[in-house]
Structures are given as C-alpha cells and as structure tokens.
Write a structure and sequence with these properties.
266 residues, alpha+beta, 434 Repressor (Amino-terminal Domain), Umud Fragment, subunit A, 2 domains, nine-stranded mixed sheet, 6 helices, 9 strands, 32% helix
Length: 266
C-alpha cells in the first residue's frame, strides 16, 4: 500500500466520505428526534447556523467531535421516554457505530441515558441478514479493540457488539468485519472513531500495509505491518511518534488487511 488514499472507501474522495458519513449521522438524529437541523442544534445548545450550513451547503469542513457529542446527547434525551416501537429502526441502525464512539461522553453528560443507548445498540445489531439481501442495513460485524469471544477464522462474530452496512467492495468475503479505531495512535492516517473495513481474504502484499492483529488471548491491535518472520511480527504506529512493537507469532491468530475506512463525525 503506497498512499493513504488507497485505504479509503472506494468511489469516495477522502473529504466527501467523511462529510457524507457525518451528514448521514446527523440525518439519522433528525429523523429520530423529529427536529430540523436548526431545531436539533438549538436544542443541543449549539449555534443553529453551524449545523444547518453543514447539512445544506457545500463546505470544506465537517462537524467537530464536541458538536457531534452534543447532537447525539440531545437526540437520545429527546427519545429516551418514547415507545421503542415508534423509533425509526433505519435511523437507529445508521447511528449504531457512532453510539459506540460517543457513548462514554454521552453518559458523562447524561448518565440516565444508559438504558436507551443499550437498547439502541441491541436493536441495530438485530438488523442482520445476507450481504446480498436488497435493502439490508446492518449485517457487517463491528468489533472493538477489546472485544472478546470473536473467532475470525471460523467466521464467528456472534459476540460482536455492533453491526453496520456491508459495503459492496466486501461482498463475497464472509469473514469480513469492521473495527472502530480506538485512539489516535495511527493519526493522521486514521482518527479515533474511524470505522475501518477489514478483509481476512486479501493478501498482505505491499510496503507498510495497514492491518488488524487478532490476538489468540482476545482483542485486536491496529497498525502498519513493518515486518514478519516465522516467529515474530513487527507492527508500527504513527502517533504521538512513530514506534514499532514486536509480537510473538505464537500469540497471534491472524493478521488481516484494512481495505477501507469510513470517517465518523469528528
């Protein structure tokens, strides 16, 4: 892999992919809350024009993590007492990956939202099905770096905490999955909260290929593949400064190529 742009979701420019995903998230929040972009922003204590301009005009920026956190928190405050069957299931599925990213911040602001966040993630994860099923919204497993009980070689993702749309470029890859970038260790290539698409079926050819390391003891690591022998594997990160770590091959279940990234608002 020779450039960062090769890592991004096919058919999308880096900036537009980030913006499109953020607009999709805000659109889902508008559907759930029943508010316009201006109304949602005002209820969240934000300058209405900030969100409205982003949603309806061509701009070069996206919304900050602070803005997205405020919008997410206000959305769930608005729906927490509503009958669950009345909530838009498609919008919940769209928000599911973002819930995982912003959940800690939301709960710090509004601890009483824990039940609705748990229910929203469970409802979104239940919308599973075949990758080729028309209109299917949430069937690609999403794992966290600390996820346990996942068996990628066996295709067992029953304990994956979330699901998201299965992108067309992963069709025919039954063991594909996504993982949420947990921190800033790969900036500027990946930001904390980015959703990385992973294909165990793709080869690892190339220089400094970005990969997910699947540890036998559980959990995943993200970095660039710096080197591999029969006994050890070297993985490098980028931030706060470039560094390499060696890992015992006997403790590694698999090394899987990152083939795309979807930016989450922030």
């Amino acid at each position: 892999m020779t450039s960062h742009t090769h890592q991004r979701t096919p058919d999308s420019a880096p900036g537009s992919a980030h913006q499109d995903q953020t607009r999709r998230l805000v659109g889902a929040m508008m559907k759930l809350s029943g508010r316009s972009a201006t109304g949602l922003a005002r209820a969240a204590g934000l300058t209405p024009s900030t969100v409205n301009r982003f949603m309806h005009h061509q701009v070069r920026h996206t919304l900050s993590q602070r803005t997205m956190l405020a919008l997410m928190t206000e959305t769930f405050l608005a729906i927490k007492d509503r009958p669950r069957p009345s909530l838009d299931a498609t919008a919940l599925a769209d928000l599911a990956p973002a819930i995982a990213v912003y959940e800690q911040g939301i709960l710090e602001l509004a601890p009483d939202l824990a039940p609705i966040l748990t229910e929203a993630k469970a409802a979104a994860s239940g919308r599973s099905g075949s990758a080729s099923e028309p209109g299917n919204l949430a069937n690609l497993p999403v794992v966290m770096s600390a996820s346990q009980g996942i068996n990628v070689p066996a295709g067992d993702f029953a304990k994956a905490p979330l699901k998201t749309r299965w992108p067309s470029f992963l069709e025919g890859d039954p063991r594909a999955f996504a993982i949420l970038m947990p921190d800033a260790s790969m900036m500027p290539r990946f930001d904390a909260g980015d959703m990385l698409y992973v294909s165990p079926a793709r080869n690892l050819d190339g220089e400094k290929v970005d990969v997910v390391l699947d540890r036998i003891g559980g959990g995943f690591l993200i970095g660039s593949l710096a080197g591999m022998t029969t006994t050890a594997l070297r993985l490098s990160t980028l931030s706060p400064r470039a560094r390499e770590q060696s890992h015992d091959r006997a403790k590694i279940r698999g090394v899987y190529r990152i083939v795309g990234v979807q930016r989450l608002g922030g």
